């Protein structure tokens, strides 16, 4: 019985491309708290603010939003900041999309420092649904320099002390202060510049890539709420050396063999394919 089950597994593994077996490059199973911090200062203008709203909506549309997956908070700022939706306000995708589409332009100066302070003190807090053991992704969208760069840098540095937090910045238009955006972003790679609000749509995928990083993905065995007992290394070892195995242990052993087999296939197959294409190209 065990042998035939394993054989079936192995045949299945053989039939599937190793890439498909070993990874899933989708954004369906990420667990992340995403805070969008959106500039609504006068320089943005009402028309461009609408474009920003549509841009954010396009991002939200592609994220798996929900209490156990991606939680979303949105902050609009100018001279002050307003939280449009906290992580734990109606947590489904439709509600978050409604919240962003309801967000209106208000005008004023660019107090980025206050927005970052409010983000840290009010939004990235468990009382408002921020999860302690889940990474945070902050996306800051602005069209210009803040009122007080010193204050903004101080606030950004305090924020960056939080563990497991990434800041992605998107500057739009020609008034952007690159130096400031660079200090705000977690690194050069997390900093983007769109030449105009017209071009902003092409940055949807770039922002999404940060929300869909492999490190944010939830492994298949942890996707359901059902309690999953992980097999420790020693327990697994005992099971493979045991001669009288009970049914669940047999399954474990079969899975262990399958995992070994996958490893070999993942290493061997790409190599073999490369050799094959090398062979045919000459
Ligand atoms: C800018 O912020 C710094 C740090 O908070 C403060 O010391 C300084 O007075 C501010 N400058 C202005 C012009 O408000
Ligand atoms: C691919 O080719 C290299 C050298 O040409 C060889 O060492 C290796 O074993 C080959 N791999 C497979 C899977 O055939």
Automatic annotation (TrEMBL):
Record has Cell wall biogenesis/degradation as a keyword: no
PROSITE patterns in the cross-refs: VWFA
Sequence segments annotated as region (Disordered): 223-249
Name the UniProt record assigns to this protein: Collagen alpha-1(XII) chain
Record bears the keyword Repressor: no
The gene coding this protein: LOC106011633
Residue span, VWFA domain: 33-207
Leader sequence residues: 1-23
Keyword entries, A-Z: Collagen, Signal
GO cellular component: collagen trimer
């Amino acid at each position: 019985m065990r042998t035939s089950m394993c054989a079936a597994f192995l045949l299945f593994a053989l039939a599937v491309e190793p890439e498909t077996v070993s990874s899933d490059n989708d954004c369906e199973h990420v667990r992340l708290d995403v805070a969008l911090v959106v500039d609504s200062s006068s320089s943005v203008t009402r028309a461009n603010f609408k474009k920003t709203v549509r841009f954010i909506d396009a991002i939200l549309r592609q994220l798996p939003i929900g209490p156990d997956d991606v939680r979303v908070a949105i902050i609009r700022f100018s001279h002050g900041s307003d939280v449009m939706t906290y992580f734990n306000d109606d947590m489904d995708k439709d509600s978050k999309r409604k919240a962003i589409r309801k967000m209106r332009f208000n005008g004023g100066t660019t107090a980025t420092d206050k927005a970052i302070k409010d983000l840290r003190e009010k939004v990235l807090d468990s009382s408002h649904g921020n999860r302690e053991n889940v990474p945070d992704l902050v996306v800051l969208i602005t069209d210009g320099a803040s009122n007080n760069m010193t204050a903004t840098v101080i606030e950004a540095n305090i924020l960056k002390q939080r563990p497991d937090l990434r800041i992605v910045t998107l500057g739009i238009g020609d008034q952007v202060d690159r130096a400031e955006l660079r200090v705000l972003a977690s690194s050069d790679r997390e900093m983007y510049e769109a030449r105009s609000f017209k071009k902003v749509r092409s940055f949807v995928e770039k922002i999404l890539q940060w929300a869909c990083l492999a490190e944010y993905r939830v492994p298949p065995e942890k996707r359901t709420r059902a309690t999953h007992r992980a097999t420790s290394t020693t327990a697994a070892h005992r099971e493979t050396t045991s001669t009288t195995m009970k049914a669940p242990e047999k399954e474990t052993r079969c899975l262990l063999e399958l995992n070994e087999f996958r490893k070999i296939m993942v290493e061997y197959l790409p190599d073999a394919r490369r050799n094959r294409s090398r062979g045919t190209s000459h």
